[in-house]
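stage 2 :: seqdesign
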C-alpha cells in the first residue's frame, strides 16, 4: 500500500515543479543591448499613449521647431513655449513675454513673409560672443540645455537668432525664447568669418573672411572689403584708439552729431543712437557728411576712446559697397570684445 501511494504522488510533484518553472520564465528575461538606443518620447499619462509632439532630443526638437515657425503653426508653437518666454536682442535686455504676445511679435516684426530659416551648424557661439556662454544668458532655473543659432531671421532675412531650448523636469524639451542678432555674426549668409585680434589696441573682432585688415599705425587699423567690378570703391572701415582725456563716448558722439547737423542743415538725415558693446555703451552717429556719407561709432573703455568710421552709408548710390559696409558693421558691433 505504501508503494502505491508513492507512485500516485510523483505526477503531482512533477506538475507543481513545471508550474513553478513556467511562472519564473515570465519574470526572468534576457538582457539585450543594441548599438544605438532609439530616441525616447515622453508618454502622456492617460493610457500611456505616446505623444509625437513631445521631444527629448534637442536636434529633433530644433528641427521640428523650425518647421513649425516656418509653417506659422501657432497652436503647436504655443504648446512648446515656456512661460515666461524670453524675447530680445543680443547685447540688450531680454524680457519675459507671455507666449501669445511673443507669437504676435514673431510674425509682426521678427520675421518677414517668406523667411528661409536654417540651423547654423558647427559654430562656436561662445567665441562669437566674446567668451560669454550662451547657455548662461537665461536664468539658471530655466534649465536651458541648448542654444541653436538660426540664420534667415528678420524682416529681410539678414539677421540671425539664438533659440533657447530648455529641459523640463519630465525630460521633455520646450522653447524658452529667442535672442535676435541684428545682421548676424556667423557669416553664414556671406561665406564665413575670420577672427582678428589686436593686443596693442586691446580688442578682438570677427570679420567677413574675405575682408582685409591693414594696420596703419600703432593706434589705427583699416578694414577693406573685396573690390567688385563696377561697384566703385569697396566698403571699408577704420578703428582708431586714443586717450579719452576725460571725454565720454556720448559727448564725443554729440559733437560729431552737432557738426553734421550744422553742415547738412534741414536736408540732412543725421541721427544718433546708443548701442551695447561688450562691457560698455557705444554711440553711433548716422548720416555724417564727408567724402561720402558714412556713420561713426564712439565708445570709451579704460580711459581710451575707440572711434570707428564706416563707409559708405549710401544704399541708393552705392548698393554693393553699402552692403559690404553693413556686413562689416554688423560683424564688428556684434563680436567686438575688449581684451580680457
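stage 2 :: out
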Amino acid at each position: 500500500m505504501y508503494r502505491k501511494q508513492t507512485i500516485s504522488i510523483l505526477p503531482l510533484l512533477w506538475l507543481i515543479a513545471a508550474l513553478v518553472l513556467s511562472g519564473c520564465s515570465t519574470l526572468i528575461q534576457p538582457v539585450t543591448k543594441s548599438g544605438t538606443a532609439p530616441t525616447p518620447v515622453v508618454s502622456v499619462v492617460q493610457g500611456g499613449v505616446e505623444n509625437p509632439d513631445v521631444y527629448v532630443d534637442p536636434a529633433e526638437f530644433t528641427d521640428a521647431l523650425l518647421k513649425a515657425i516656418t509653417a506659422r503653426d501657432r497652436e503647436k508653437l504655443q504648446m512648446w513655449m515656456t512661460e515666461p518666454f524670453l524675447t530680445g536682442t543680443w547685447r540688450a535686455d531680454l524680457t519675459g513675454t507671455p507666449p501669445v504676445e511673443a507669437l504676435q511679435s514673431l510674425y509682426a516684426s521678427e520675421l518677414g513673409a517668406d523667411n528661409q530659416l536654417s540651423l547654423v551648424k558647427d559654430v562656436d557661439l561662445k567665441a562669437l560672443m566674446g567668451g560669454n556662454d550662451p547657455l548662461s544668458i537665461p536664468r539658471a532655473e530655466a534649465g536651458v540645455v541648448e542654444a541653436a543659432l538660426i540664420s534667415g531671421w528678420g524682416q529681410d532675412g539678414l539677421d540671425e537668432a539664438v533659440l533657447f531650448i530648455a529641459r523640463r523636469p519630465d525630460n521633455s524639451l520646450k522653447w524658452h525664447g529667442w535672442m535676435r542678432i541684428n545682421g548676424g555674426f556667423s557669416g553664414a549668409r556671406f561665406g564665413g568669418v575670420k577672427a582678428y585680434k589686436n593686443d596693442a589696441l586691446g580688442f578682438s573682432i570677427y570679420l567677413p573672411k574675405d575682408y582685409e585688415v591693414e594696420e596703419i599705425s600703432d593706434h589705427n587699423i583699416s578694414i577693406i572689403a573685396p573690390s567688385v567690378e563696377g561697384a566703385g570703391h569697396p566698403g571699408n572701415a577704420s578703428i582708431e584708439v586714443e586717450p579719452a582725456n576725460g571725454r565720454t563716448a556720448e559727448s564725443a558722439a554729440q559733437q560729431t552729431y552737432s557738426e553734421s547737423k550744422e553742415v547738412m542743415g534741414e536736408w540732412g538725415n543725421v541721427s544718433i543712437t546708443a548701442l551695447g558693446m561688450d562691457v560698455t555703451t557705444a554711440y553711433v552717429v548716422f548720416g555724417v557728411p564727408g567724402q561720402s556719407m558714412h556713420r561713426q561709432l564712439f565708445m570709451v573703455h579704460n580711459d581710451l576712446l575707440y572711434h570707428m568710421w564706416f563707409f559708405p552709408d549710401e544704399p541708393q548710390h552705392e548698393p554693393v559697397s553699402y552692403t559690404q559696409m553693413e556686413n562689416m558693421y554688423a560683424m564688428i558691433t556684434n563680436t567686438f570684445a575688449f581684451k580680457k
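stage 3 :: structure notes
- The chain has seven helices and 16 strands.
- Residues 191-338 form a domain with the Protein Transport Mog1p; Chain A fold (CATH 3.40.1000.10).
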